[in-house]
Amino acid sequence: MSTELTFTYTTTAEEVATAFSEEIKGKNVLITGTSINGIGFETARVIAKYAKLVVITGYSEERLKLSEETIKKEVPQANIHRLILDLSSFASIRKAVELINTNPEPLHVLINNAAASFVDFTLTEDGLETQLATDHVGPFLFTKLLAPKLLAAGTPTYTPRVVFVSSEGHSFGTGVDFDALTKPDPAKYVKINAYAQAKSANILTAIELSKRSKGKINAYSLNPGGIFTNIHQNPNAIPVFKAMGILLPDGKPNPELGQWKTIPEGAATTVAAAFDPRLNDKPGAYLENSVVANEKVAAHSSDPANAEKLWNVTEKLIGETFAF
Predict the structure, then answer these.
(1) What's the family (predicted)?
(2) Could you give the C-alpha distances from 221 to 156, 212, 213, 271, 274, in angstroms and in order?
(3) Which of 33-42, 169-178, 187-196, 277-286 has the lowest mean pLDDT?
(4) What's the whole-model pTM score?
(5) Strand, helix or coil for residue 179
(6) Residue 235 to residues 6, 168, 170, 245: CA-CA distances in angstroms?
(7) DSSP state, 136?
């Protein structure tokens, strides 16, 4: 791959996948959160053109089937597997991993894309606040349980990857509130704060996973950019976005905040994080506009002490420890 290759704000996922088609070939990839009109779907669509296997996940069988059918209309040869997964439920996560383990193939890339953003305060069946559970604790457990599959993909010339889709919103507030994580309190719950904490946790987890695996797994996090997706049409999220000025009173994107990305542009950075070979010596990196942008990470989201504490606290919450 030429080191002269450059990506910009307007680079699309299709362009990145084409550039790295040789890296994608032969790979088994799992992407969480792949409903149509989201960046997870677009990521799956462009990768499916070259990958050996793409596993798409979601909690709705109907929506998963629609995603698969839509991809196969364009890419008839795509090898797509559907997987029901509710990241707010430890039981659902374990059941999904059991199904994955029936396939003897290794897993080369895990993309933690799914999120439950700006939801009202509720507790999951495991006693966690739903947004932090779905966006951080669930993906942490899912990644932990899939670690053997990922490690099996490692070779002397290939290191498996885990990608966490974070957000510029990680910089809001002061980072992860460990009390909110371990002792959720509806009286203290603020949607935007929980969102920011979850996105901060994504970055910290990528940093610590890369560190603890000691070269066996490379993890990355990223900011896809400002994109008008199905999240912005979620009834729970619309009032929050309007209050923040992200959406106009009519619900449309606020152009005064700068150029909004299209979904293909927004998914580009995910594809780069998953396959750009130039990242091999940059484990734990944070990407923006498909390139490394560690300088854009807020201090509380890059602090090694925070990363270590979050890892230890989350292992206690799931009742399991990672093994590499």
Answers:
(1) Belongs to the short-chain dehydrogenases/reductases (SDR) family.
(2) 24, 16, 16, 12, 10
(3) 169-178
(4) 0.93
(5) helix
(6) 38, 22, 22, 16
(7) I
CATH numbers and ranges of domains, the chain: 13-226+261-318 (3.40.50.720)
Q: Please return the burial class of 234, using the count of CB atoms within 10 Å of its CB with bins 0-12, 13-18 and 19+.
A: middle
Residue entry with tokens 């919450």: 317
Coil, strand or helix at 143: helix
Residue 189 appears among annotated catalytic residues: yes
Tens digit of each residue's pLDDT (9 = 90 or more) over 242-274: 666 667 777 777 776 667 799 999 999 999 999
Helices (H), the chain: 13-19, 21-24, 39-47, 61-74, 90-100, 130-132, 138-151, 178-182, 191-213, 238-244, 263-275, 304-318
What's the pLDDT score for residue 168?
A: 87
Query: Residue 225: which of 248, 259, 187, 200 has the closest Cα?
Result: 259
- Measured distance CA(184)–CA(193) in Å, rounded: 13
- Diameter over CA atoms, the chain: 54
Among residues 9, 158, 189, 286, the one annotated as catalytic is 189
